[in-house]
Specification:
The complex is a heterodimer of chains A (338) and B (325).
Chain A lengths: L13 H20 L1 H6 L15 H4 L10 E3 L5 H7 L3 H8 L23 E3 L7 H15 L5 E6 L6 H13 L3 E7 L2 E2 L2 E2 L9 H7 L4 E5 L3 H18 L3 E6 L12 H4 L5 H8 L3 H11 L5 H24 L20
Parallel strand pairs in A: 1-2, 1-3, 3-4, 4-8, 7-8
Antiparallel strand pairs in A: 5-6
Helix pairs in contact in A: 1-4, 1-12, 1-13, 5-13, 6-7
Chain B lengths: L1 E4 H15 L3 E5 L15 H5 L4 E3 L4 H13 L3 E5 L10 H8 L2 H4 L9 E6 L14 H5 L5 E3 L4 H13 L4 E6 L6 E4 L13 E4 L4 E5 L3 H14 L4 E5 L2 E3 L3 H11 L2 E8 L4 H13 L8 E5 L8 H7 L3 H12 L1
Parallel strand pairs in B: 2-3, 2-4, 4-5, 5-7, 6-7, 10-11, 10-13, 13-14
Antiparallel strand pairs in B: 1-8, 6-12, 9-11
């Protein structure tokens, strides 16, 4: 029986890979599930966007990236930060607006960051990280390395002009950006088919000369297999690639998009249909079939994750609020030695 | 020292910094093969190659994002906008990304990017191409704003901008590109930001200027001298950081100030500077601080109307006479 406490970036055997993905997805899911209560208690403020249902998209991709690769994503970024290796306690403390947060309390939910893990952050502007990813990719190209930059963005972003400028330029210069379109079907409350007459996202990328494919991102193994092949290939071609990941978000766009609000744009039955294809369920079923995950293992995993979240909360609660004299710090970087 | 044009001084600054630091590169429209719309990047692609002088499509969001992202990943990009008027498409990348990433990340990410290009009014370029938008950028925390008035300053300030670890808005003046001046050839010559220059000493009134308005104020000072008024002219060089110490020391001496700008008068840089003089130097003042700026209209094409919209020497003289009356 394989060990459950895997480093998320450890990839040795198929079973261990599956276990690693499962463990990571459970960590992200339980973390997200724990947040609304703390939001209602006033512990967390601002906007809060949960990733429930889309976990396979980070679990199947991020562990394949190296520490010298780069990752950028949207404001729905908790799962990305945790997958990249940002300690959960630092993510929680950031949501609490505390000095122990990964951005020292200055970023919040939408601006998680972890430069030492290659995580250049969440981005509060729809489509915003894509032009930045072009530049990161260009830096890789200029330095001549074999790194890649994975840039996550949503189906709402595909209609932003800057995304198309950047895809065109990424193809023109040949920069190793993996464009990952998290197509969860809705930009806030606007369904994809209500925002474009061309819902074939791969065709949009192809229009810019970027090869791509659509995958079922409800299945972690499918995501991982595609990502492994694509990232491996990008390390030698250094060319951009486009991945349309079909997925679904179980909860509202943000806290305010509650069940009542969601009735304006989607049926409860639709949510239930997608939940039957839950990436955690399918991965667990596979592990059980392989004999790699017993009831006791699962209990142990859940307990471990519960303890990790409890520890993160305790850390966040104890972490002080940023001192007032830090208000003006970090507006600029000190111009020493210019 | 060598006599050269403002545009040549900018080119020399970039060439020296590209020589000094392999992480410096230029991207923008027509910067390479075409050798620069205003010839500022002439010869640089031939010298440094296409990877370091990158011709881009007409995609300002892409250009600004490319520079911002490369800076976040450790390079020192110089993004050229063909004019600052075209940079408006890229405001989200400049304001929401480049300017804020250091603060949003709690200081964990630096963004040493230079956004440069021509600004300013004139030449009957009319409403969409003839304007000066420095106040927009001055308003945003996290951006530094430099506006050189001379060839020497163009070189020294641009070199500093490239070395600075922060995003810099570098606004050149299209009307100054062909102006010649003595420029230090020393490759270590840099002008730190936040150091205004007193370009003419005087005792009766302080004329505060930057960019093209410096020469306008110097001309006005000559005429004022003939009228018996001794005007001191200050070239701010950078609007962020703003060297109020030099301005206030001058006002303490002259007790009168006229703050000038080429951009629209309403909510412009001069309003901020005048307010700070009022807040910090009120006791030194013998007259209200006056502002001179452009007419608050989209720039008209007709030559006569355009001339009326752009502040000139006579406007500065009239304001100086009012405060010294």
């Amino acid at each position: 029986m394989a060990k459950l406490t895997l480093d998320p970036r450890d990839t040795s055997t198929d079973t261990q890979e599956l276990l690693g993905m499962y463990r990571l997805m459970v960590r992200v899911r339980r973390f997200e599930e724990s947040l609304y209560r703390r939001y209602r208690e006033g512990k967390i403020g601002g906007y809060l966007h949960r990733y429930d249902g889309e976990e396979a998209l980070v679990a199947g991709v991020v562990p394949l990236l190296r520490r010298d690769d780069y990752i950028l994503c949207t404001y729905r970024d908790h799962g990305h930060a945790i997958s990249c290796g940002v300690p959960m306690r630092e993510v929680m403390a950031e949501l609490y607006g505390r000095v122990g947060g990964c951005a020292a309390g200055k970023g919040g939910s939408m601006h998680l960051i972890g430069p030492e893990y290659g995580f250049l952050g969440g981005d509060g502007i729809v489509g915003g990280p894509v032009p930045v990813a072009l530049g990161v990719g260009y830096a890789i190209k200029m330095r001549g390395g074999d790194q890649v930059c994975a840039c996550y963005f949503g189906d709402g972003a595909i209609n932003q002009g800057g995304v198309h400028e950047s895809m065109n330029m990424a193809a023109l210069y040949g920069v190793p950006v993996l464009f990952i379109l998290e197509n969860n079907g809705y930009a806030m409350g606007t369904a994809v088919e209500r925002s474009t007459r061309q819902p074939d996202m791969v065709a949009k990328a192809a229009a810019h000369g970027i090869a791509g494919e659509q995958i079922d991102a409800m299945d972690a193994q499918v995501v991982r297999e595609a990502a492994s092949r694509i990232i491996g290939s990008m390390r030698t071609t250094h060319e951009p690639y486009f991945l349309e990941a079909r997925c679904y978000r179980y909860v509202g766009h943000g806290v305010a998009d509650n069940a009542q609000q969601q009735r304006f744009y989607r049926e409860e039955d639709e949510i239930e249909q997608w939940k039957r294809r839950d990436p955690l369920l399918s991965t667990r079923a596979r592990l059980v079939e392989l004999g790699a995950l017993g009831e006791a293992d699962e209990k142990a995993l859940e307990a471990e994750v519960e303890a990790e979240i409890a520890e993160a909360v305790a850390f966040a609660e104890q972490s002080p609020e940023p001192p007032l004299d830090s208000l003006y710090e970090n507006v600029f970087t000190e111009s020493m030695g210019v | 020292m060598a006599l050269m044009r403002y545009a040549e001084a900018l080119r020399l600054a970039m060439a020296e910094e590209m020589e000094r630091d392999p992480s410096v590169f230029i991207c923008g429209e027509e910067v390479g093969q075409y050798q620069g719309t205003f010839r500022v990047t002439e010869g640089l692609m031939q010298r440094f190659g296409r990877d370091r002088v990158v011709d881009t499509p007409i995609s300002e969001i892409g250009i600004a994002g490319m520079a911002t992202g490369a800076a976040m990943a450790g390079l020192r990009p110089i993004a050229e906008f063909m004019t600052w008027s075209f940079a408006l498409s890229a405001m989200d990348q400049i304001v929401n990304h480049a300017a804020k990433i250091t603060y949003m990340s709690g200081g964990r990410i630096q963004c040493p990017v230079v956004f440069r290009g021509p600004a300013g009014t004139g030449n009957q370029l009319s409403a969409q191409h003839s304007q000066s938008l420095e106040a927009w950028f001055m308003h945003v925390p996290g951006l530094k704003v430099a506006m050189p008035a001379t060839a020497a300053d163009a070189k020294g300030l641009l070199k500093y901008a490239i070395r600075d670890p922060n995003p810099v808005i570098f606004m050149e003046h299209a009307g100054l590109y062909s102006q010649r001046g003595e420029v230090p050839e020393d490759p270590d010559f840099v002008i730190p930001f936040g150091q205004a220059a007193i370009v003419r000493e005087g005792t009766d009134v302080t004329l505060v200027a930057y960019s093209h308005m410096v020469s306008t104020c110097l001309k006005a000072a000559v005429s004022l001298h003939d009228m018996g008024i001794s005007a001191e002219v200050i070239d701010l060089r950078t609007l962020t950081p703003l060297d109020m110490d030099t301005v206030l020391a001058s006002v303490a001496k002259t007790h009168r100030a006229v703050v000038t700008q080429e951009e629209w008068l309403n909510v412009g840089a001069a309003a901020e500077i005048a307010a700070r003089i009022g807040e910090m130097g009120f006791d030194d003042l013998d007259a209200p601080v006056l502002r001179v700026g452009g007419a608050d209209v989209p720039m008209p094409y007709a030559k006569k109307l355009e001339s009326a919209a752009i502040p000139n020497e006579q406007d500065v003289i009239a304001a100086a006479l009012r405060v010294t009356d």
